[in-house]
Task: structure prediction
Amino acid sequence: MGGEETATSKAPRTERGKRTLRKLLDAAAAEFGERGYHEASISGITQRAGAALGTFYTYFDSKEQVFRALVDDMGHLTRQHIAERVPGNVDRLTAERLGLEAFIEFVREHKDLYRIVMEAQFVAEDAYLNYYKVFAAAYTRNLAQAAEKGEIRPGHEEERAWALIGMSVFLGMRYAVWSSDKSAKEVADAAAELITFGLSPLARGGGVM
Amino acid sequence: MGGEETATSKAPRTERGKRTLRKLLDAAAAEFGERGYHEASISGITQRAGAALGTFYTYFDSKEQVFRALVDDMGHLTRQHIAERVPGNVDRLTAERLGLEAFIEFVREHKDLYRIVMEAQFVAEDAYLNYYKVFAAAYTRNLAQAAEKGEIRPGHEEERAWALIGMSVFLGMRYAVWSSDKSAKEVADAAAELITFGLSPLARGGGVM
DNA sequence: TCGAAACCTGAGTCAATATTCAAGTTGTAG
DNA sequence: CTACAACTTGAATATTGACTCAGGTTTCGA
Result:
């Protein structure tokens, strides 16, 4: 599902071109992240990149196209980062804790890109939808597999996936984007306990009902 | 914390004025909700309202000001609707289920306003922050009280509050804004179970550890 | 009924900026 | 070295839409 083939005409063919493209992408991430899509300007991007205004259009068709490129990029980077931090052989509940911690750390290091993803909802809704649908589908699958293994209670996998993604997103927003007043581990531990046992006072001691 | 006093000069003084202001507010909600802040135009708002362009500026100072007014409005309406649906004397876990169901229903009936709240993050960040901080503070308090009564396990009240708000927001987005393929009750029940017992397979049967 | 305050009108002003383009510069294959 | 493709440049174009304003119309208290 790449977009490489249509972008051919704009792809750089020399080393110099590749360097310029990279500078523009980094500059765009910074500009969009700091000022938001509509406040951001192409001239702002090219200035940050140390290039002329027209150079932008050597590599991109429009303002919206770079934005979409950055959203997709963020999806890949996020999944990659989490996958690196969560071994494949741990049980689901452990994976949840490690995954959340990795996610919060990642957001802290990429606030700009994260803000771009969130804003995509209003600028490139299909890109945004896709971003979360990919996550939700993978999550739903993981939950279903874990249920089969008896690692978690079965049922409602899809709703749970969205609920858990929502938790991560808001914890990321609150404790990574807005403020870092608690460590990623602290937040992840609190959430992991909630995910594992819920709020019930009976959960640990031996259940009723 | 209202803004009534400074808005005096723009407040309507006749019946006709009140009617026009209301028409403009409704039109603005629809315009912003459908097209998003930046695509929305003042002329779009006044056309929907059946008024002339200049009339807008009889009641508002700027495009951003109406937008903020709508965000605040949404906060009040949401809290009011949930409070109406959640009796004060039920235990916390029941309140969670009823509250989430009420929230999803509310979002379904006010998709426009809900979209506006989400977009506020990029248009009027302080209004957005305030919107959720008010929710989170109340939530944290409720959780602490419930913990004292022994209705839930104590600890991490703030993180839990943000986690639970995130769950609601994403479930609302997925099952109210994007699609209504499941009933509010169905979604609320699934989430309530997760909130109560977590994912642990041991939670119901009688716990180990 | 009268007149002032409130309200309405919509063409016009003005600033912002996405995008184009024609002319120059640099890289590189042969 | 040379010539052509790749790349860069930034002034000019074109559109868009928030906001103003001077002049009408409606409301309503007295």
Remarks:
- The CA atoms of residues 170 and 195 of chain A lie 15 Å apart.
